[in-house]
Amino acid sequence: MTRLSKKVLCLFVLSGLNLPQSANADNARPPAPRLPTPLSVIEGYTLQEADAPLESAAPIMPLTRKDERLGDALAYYMKGRVQLERREMESALESFEKAIHFDPTAIDSYQAAIPLLLQKQRLDDAKELALQAAVHSEKGLDLVLTVAAIFAQADKVSESISLISATLKLPKVQKAGTNELIMRRDLGLYHRLRGENEQATVEYKYVFEAVSDSKLDKTVFDKVMSDPGKLYDEFGDVFLKAEQPELALRAYEEASKHREAKPGLHSFNLATVFQKTGKPEIALEELQKYFDAKLESRGRAALELLKTLYKELGKENELLGKLETMIQDDSKNDVLRYFVADELLVAGQIDRAATIYRGDTPNITDPRALVGMIAVLRHSQNAEELLPILTKAYQTVPRAEDEETLQKLAPDVRNLSQRFEEELTALKEDEKTLDLLMAHARTLEEGDEPKIDFISAYVLGKLAVESKRKDDAIHFYKFAIEMRNDPPAQLYTELGGFLLDNEHYEESIAILEEALEHPSSQIQQQRWYFLFFLSYSYEFSGETDRAIDAIREAQRLNKMPRLLYQEAWVFYHNRQWDEALKIFNQVIDQNRNRRDEDSIKLVQDTQFRISNIYVEQGDKPKGEAVLQEVLKDDPDNTQANNDLGYLWAEQNKNLDEAKAMIQKAIDAEPDNPAYQDSMGWVMYQLGDYEKAHEYLNKAVQHENGEDSTLYDHLGDALLKLMRNAEAKEIFNKALKLEEEKKAPSEKLLDSLRAKLKPLN
Questions:
Q1: E strands, 447-519, in order
Q2: SS3 of 242, please?
Q3: What is residue 32's DSSP assignment?
Q4: If we measure between CA atoms, which residue out of 714, 703, 706 comes closest to residue 679?
Q5: Are 496 and 508 in contact (CB under 8 A)?
Q6: Strand, coil or helix: what is 46?
Q7: pLDDT band per the 50, 70, 90 thresholds, residue 585
Q8: Interval 402-454: pLDDT, tens
Q9: Can you tell me the distance from the alpha carbon of 277 to that of 240, in angstroms, rounded to the nearest whole number?
Q10: Of 270, 301, 299, residue with least CA distance to 287
Q11: How many CB atoms lie within 10 A of CB 331?
Q12: Distances in Å between the alpha carbon of 71 and those of 27, 96, 103, 720?
């Protein structure tokens, strides 16, 4: 926070002015108050009868407008600090924002306001404020780096990238200066975390060339390259992945200069470069130096490289022998032992692999051994031993839900996570072993004292959900629930969500209603959430009135805006357009001015629904106008680009522009069947029926492509290609799908029947 000078503070005291509480121009500053006369005692000083009465001193130097703004800024900042102490977060944020308004250079105000914005998930506002700080203060650049790091830690790496990219464009950022190099270094890291090696290379190369300049000040080098050995290694790894081996070699050479007493690590780096440049013999020589040094820092990567080199040299049959020799020379190397076991497994030597995984203890705990034993026991269909191994593996091996999360894991952990998923996939596809596993678990439930614990029951339920075994999922989830007096609400939501997603509506209603009746205080705290799920189940079951009752009760328990949206969705799904439109507009009105990420997404989702309502009501211009409003605020919005492009394609207008917009959506989500359908329909309207068929056929092949409209479009393309027999089959498929809906479109049904009539 920029502080007032002692001189200015004295002026405030001498003038008798209080620090203002409002920035309103109408709230004029009162005149300096005069002290009452006669005044006998002030601050313990006794006046004599002949003394002149005291008066307020007039300021020697009148306050400037700048002084007044600084005073206002300080007052609002201090007010915000008091409000923070009182946990009045909204008021505190407002005070800090006012402080920034009066003094945009006051870094303390930014540092106080931004955490509150992040807490409220107002990410765009937090980014904007960090950028503003960088515009007005050198310290603001440090704040940008801090906020970007916070985004990354919260798995919002894309926000980190956009913030730093915007900051780099500011004139305050000096080219090749300390701040620019640090920001580009961090930007490279964030691209690397997303697996974007080409973009990471651009940033890392810029930094690498700058710090390699002999004219660079050592102080700058030390700030940018805080850990040179590690950073140069990281540069080299990224350059290598981006197919720039010469640049990687330079980086590795620099790393070796800054690393103490680990020449073997440099040999590994050289081996990777030589392998990439087609020199496997030299690469193998360098890799052996790494193994001779008995290093483990590169983990499985060194052994995977050895395997690759043996394959390139045509020596695959010698690999196991080489590995076993290495074990004799380095028997305490667990990375090596488990790698050998994995290779034995691949070679079909299952008993030998199992011996290594089991080791010399009856209780297997190492995650690498657990994953390997899943494969061993699946092959032997040993359900009795498989159950405890699976239970431990679920508890100890991380499961990455997406590629970005996977990239953040350490290489060996990432490899283990991927192998675990592969083994689980193989198990889910092995019906016989799964049957044996589920049957064995049920025998453990028998008797007064079941021999299956809560975690094992939960793991079996989760495995059944992932393999879409409805009866087993219900059985083991309910068994887990019954084992706890106060079961986690997650058990009901996972099972209920699975049943809902797989259209087992009757069973999902039974489970969710059971949750509502459960006496657990923890579950009752989530009552609104179960009612939210129930509104879907009721509506998909055709019980719209019960769905509305459920979602309205949820709203009484929780004021979350998404619940009002859900009420509108129920009417929307039931094709009660007017009622849905009325409530969707309420959602817009209540959230239009909120700038947090969730509110922006909610408003956009609502706009898409409103657009579709207008289209369903036959007012396509209104539907287009809503989508254009979305694109005005968010030009790259994937769904808006697709939906407007599709609307234009339906009307056979603006086809080139529609094609470009839909292509933008496909670039963002290449496998989305709705976007493939849109492009197919544009190509149909352009008269390119072969291309139309290509896109439309891809759309219906997708797991989410079972849609009557998609099949209808595919049938139209087949007709144009004179493939009438296939078109007839596809139209019948579309008709069947539409007839099975709870609320089918009569317009589409009539159209399909009309197309089929001449084909029969």
A1: none
A2: coil
A3: P
A4: 714
A5: yes
A6: strand
A7: very high
A8: 777 777 788 889 899 999 999 999 999 999 999 999 999 999 998 888 899 99
A9: 10
A10: 270
A11: 10
A12: 15, 14, 9, 76
Cα-based torsion angle of the residue sequence 665, 670, 671, 674 in order, rounded to the nearest 10 degrees? 20
Question: Coil, strand or helix: which one is 41?
Answer: strand
Cα distances from 23 to residues 72, 88, 102, in angstroms, run 7, 20, 8
Which two tokens mark 493? 């939501």
What phi and psi values does residue 641 have, to the nearest 5 degrees?
-60, -45
Tokens representing residue 228 in the block: 């040179």
Q: Which residues, at least 6 apart from 737, have a Cβ–Cβ distance to it below 8 Å?
A: 706, 707, 708, 711
Which of these, 208, 274, 264, 210, lies nearest to 238 by C-alpha position? Answer: 208
Q: Residues 131, 162: contact at Cβ < 8 Å?
A: no
Nearest Cα to Cα of residue 644 among 684, 678, 671: 678
The model carries a pTM of: 0.74
Lookup: tokens for 20: 């203002």
- Rounded Cα–Cα distance for residues 179 and 139 (Å): 10
Measured distance CA(358)–CA(355) in Å, rounded:
5
Nearest residue to 318 (alpha-carbon basis) of 352, 286, 343: 343
Preceding omega of 38 cis (within 30 degrees of 0): yes
Torsion region of 447: left, alpha or beta (phi above 0 gives left; psi -120 to 50 gives alpha): left
Residue with tokens 């990432």: 414
Nearest CA to 533 among 574, 490, 572, 589? 490
Q: Report the C-alpha gap between 688 and 681 in whole angstroms.
A: 10
Task: Please state, in angstroms and rounded to a whole number, the distance separating the CA atoms of residues 511 and 540.
Answer: 15
